[in-house]
């Protein structure tokens, strides 16, 4: 395709800007037919050839498409448009998918203090090998058949039992197994929201919530987070101003801040949810890292408007993919149907391996060990970073994340870009921030900071980073 | 909730009907605010209390929701609405999800001639056990880490190699691994279509395509199918009339008809796709059952507008969940991002087990065996059904499906309902038909018909079915 590289002349550029604005505002959604050449020319008082040139340039850019004999249309596809719609405030190099891409595709040699999971050698590899061998021997193992629509009953029972030990009474019939915690959140969003619905998130929040909600074309509204939960004045103001349909948050040690929801705020949010017809999605993926259970949004008086999400990716394996969601019974049937329509069924064999690790206690024993290791790693990381001039926003009680303020004048995105050149994967604050208010912050994973090369590399990076 | 059971009085019923029609036509989409009580009363010349009663009854039905102090809103959630929007023509008991639900959740005792997959004991259980043990021993096995965004390179390489033996030259870098073939189709739909876009499907087609497209709110347009592909006159007429964005079909032995696309029709569809800016999704999930490769929509001159989907669910295991999609390079990046946003990453361990089964040739050897068994089962099933008065629409060259006409006067939906009472799972024609034109048809799976109890049970069922 010949993309004209010379700048467009004034009138042509004007038409192009007009079209781009309509598309950006979604007044002209993907697939909409553009005004005819003649109509556009008349409306803007330009010649038809000016409009032809503007449309051709926009088509070359991929913003619109020509259909032979049928005019010009706003280009799909939906997804890249929705995901790329990041707005002018955000550095395109550091969008919410940036951390995912770097984490998933960087080589094993890279140091990853910005990564969102534990190092491979912290994971229960021997227990997994043993469970694989046991399942391979088990004559009743679900080796080839489709799993039931809600997932393997044995694993749903184990999950209910485990949540019981954490004080959450859940009936296994209210648990739907999914292929990941993210997929559970995605299913709930498909089920609950319409394009244009407002959704509240914490600012900062898990960056993939932002990418996911953009794929759903939600109106994302960030509420500043504090060490004991959202800023409640801002939360209430956002309810009044935006009438959101959902509040999507993560319980347990908060990602990225390590904050801990207080019981008073949890109660207040439940009461507000009731009054404002707000649905709460509580992503509890880090809950098993808590030494002392914090408050949860889910409680007996809120079951009808809270859905909870969990997964084994952080404590057991992200390669044995399995998540789950807990929701009221009348939603669960529809969610199971939606899941069948969109992925058919779950991974029975994976579910059987995990059920075995829960049944024989190997997983529970391992998570206790993880909590102990993290409790030692946290103060070590605080000392290491403190020596480099980074100050924690809050000292988390547990979990793997430490949210830090960078030395004055250092921009997180720039530091992360420079780090990448040197095989150092960092998580700059603004990928977590809907308001792009965290340019001076950075998330660290305390479990990924034991490599002896790290302190020097980080020190050099900070010293040489342009301010 | 108190649902008023007495019939609504005339004026109230009139208002309710008016609201329901607006909602059904999506003039008032989920989340839209209903007119105020006063405005509605004025507009329809009724009292405010009549509108109050109508709204209350609609809220009790779940069609609308009250927000305290803020009026009434069209109820979400999206999904159950979209999936339940089946229209008056279709028997709600036998919707496109009916077969899925019955197949996934019926006990192992049930006879399943209507099921869409091979019996458990036709599957390579021993080879899977062996591969599990090998992976458990392999020091380099991806036991705990997240898989790369496109999926495990070893499996992508094996898939490209296998497709090469079938005459399809595919670069492993153009393959994205997913958790199922269905998920691959779903991702493509999320990427390519907008609510309201027209999508062509075969009539009859795989029933889950209908459920999936409804979840996307596509306008589904069925094109009658023939033994060598779609009816081309109707296909072209549909292109002109509906300007569809996509044609979603399945290659190889067609589900449910066992039809085989001719090379001439494949060429014609490619040419039309080019002229009408149509994108083709070719679900090739049954391709490995072909003894003699049939034509495909994907060809060297159409790579830019064809996406292909495959999976191992039918030939290897549906419990080791893994599908894949092949698409042009510039789509693949965006599809991988969309997948990261919505499910994060794939099941690395499952991918490693499958890669091993492909690498050592166990899977290839097993699929050869399956083709031989199916070639023997097909004529057996035709004889068995013929003796009961069922005639094949077409005698398929390969695959597991046989599309049959029922004896005169027998309705497939009714027969399937009666069958279920007797532990017999059947697949009535209309779940496959967008036009609901297949009430006299039924899909049989020849691999599921060797149980000696089947002939008598089926004979009794047909004899006693009311005509």
From TrEMBL, chains A, B:
SMART domains: HTH_GNTR
Membrane-spanning ranges: none
EC number, as in UniProt: 2.6.1.1
Domain of life where this protein originates: Bacteria
PROSITE patterns: HTH_GNTR
One Pfam family from the record: GntR
InterPro entries listed in its UniProt record: Aminotransferase_I/II_large, HTH_trans_reg/aminotransferase, PyrdxlP-dep_Trfase, PyrdxlP-dep_Trfase_major, PyrdxlP-dep_Trfase_small, Tscrpt_reg_HTH_GntR, WH-like_DNA-bd_sf, WH_DNA-bd_sf
Residue ranges of domain HTH gntR-type in the record: 9-77
Enzyme class: transferase
Gene Ontology MF: a single term: DNA-binding transcription factor activity
Keyword vocabulary terms for this entry: Aminotransferase, DNA-binding, Pyridoxal phosphate, Transcription, Transcription regulation, Transferase
Protein family per UniProt: In the C-terminal section; belongs to the class-I pyridoxal-phosphate-dependent aminotransferase family.
PANTHER family: HTH-TYPE TRANSCRIPTIONAL REGULATORY PROTEIN GABR, TRANSCRIPTIONAL REGULATORY PROTEIN
Protein name: Transcriptional regulator, GntR family domain / Aspartate aminotransferase
Organism: Castellaniella defragrans (strain DSM 12143 / CCUG 39792 / 65Phen) (Alcaligenes defragrans)
